[in-house]
Structure prediction request, 288 residues.
Amino acid sequence: MEALKPPCILQARDLDDAWFSALWACMERDRQGRFRYAQRYRIDRGSYAGQERLEIDTFLIDIVAPGSGPLVPQLPPGKEHLAPTTEEAANKYMLYLLTDEKQPGEQYTYGERLVGPRALLPVEGLRRRDGQPVSAADYELLVAGQALALDGLPRQLALPFGVNPVEEVIRIYREEGHNTNQAVMEIGMPGDILLEDPPCLRLVDTRIRNGRLHFIVYFRSWDLYNGFPVNLAGLQLLKKYMADEIGVEDGSIRAMSKGLHLYDDMWELAALRTGQEIKIQKSPGQQD
Prediction:
């Protein structure tokens, strides 16, 4: 088994084509019956520890015209039950990307990172200028200054950065010109390494070429069956919104990941959708 399989580089017309092409690539085998791009392994750490998954080590897809076709995968007659998402869900997801509201128990959302990012700080590590630890009274002042307590007193504080990255990128392009490499929206933060479930989407970079706004996005880990379609649909709607605000045309999406994967409970559905005559037997500890 190679240390890393060859990079999987795809081009797709639209979002529907992108999902099908990625599914096919994840399950594709060579003439010897080995997975061409994916490796199979059991997860040691993460939300699905103990499950197996097929994962493409290095994935890049160029979606040429994501706004030209359907937002979500279109299933042929008789396979409608395999649909991973709906247009209604995609539109709700786009609104989620434009709000920093969080539900109880959520440590972050992509929307928070895009429109109202906050720095997560452990209170135990904070010290005053005189070198003394932050006291309960100091903590109350921080909260009054719009820092938010996470998981109760005194574990973590979320201190607002005071910036809306989406609106700032729009402003940069409108007021300072299109030829820049600085208009990037970062989802990931150094402190995320301490989270139980750190963000999968890490970066939404942007570029304007020939009057079109393009997105270049990176996922550290990416659920191919259910996450990929709704993530890309929401990002496409966000890109179209930003292009309209800037006053340019809508462009492409280039998406990459070092962990595009299918969980074992999705293998059969993926095979049904792609029509590949591939039966993957679960065998604990075995890798392809």
Observations:
- The radius of gyration is 21 Å.
- Residues 144-154 have pLDDT under 50 and may be disordered.
- The first strand starts at residue 8 and ends at 12.
